[in-house]
Amino acid sequence: MCECDSVDKDWEDRVTAAWVAFDTSASTGAADFRAVIDALVAELPDDSPLGPFERACAWDSTGHSDRAVPLYREALARGLSGYKGRRAKIQLASSLRNIGRAEEGVKLLTPELTAPSDELDDAVRATLALCLSSLGRDREGLALVLGALAPHLPRYQRSMANYARMLVTGPPDEPR
Asked: What is the pTM of this model?
């Protein structure tokens, strides 16, 4: 059963509304926003993976990656999967990078490169590129970003994809 099946649409709508209010209102303070999320999480069953996920997102978005990391891990350990599970991995990797643990972010996201494709593919690549850059592996990161960008270009898709590949593999051997 998907972790979302036990949560009603009203609850999801209220979470979305809290995020919209936080994102669009300069008057919503970080602590007030986290309190709103905590109140919504309190409505969930104690073992729900959505609780730690939503709390992690709130801590993360208010500048506390260090507080978010254990909550993302808890959400994943409780079985958060699917779309929100993938979001949790992306956000966890970003938070790990922010607290100086980029190598863990690389290990977490590298398997996502071959996961079933969805709208988060580019976010996986962008976050992985940042982790790689934090480790001094800029060429690999740039290759990921160019590879993600190439399909969105009106022209030069093949060229950019080839350049991205050559950043990590080098130019093709010249004929002898």
From this structure: 0.88
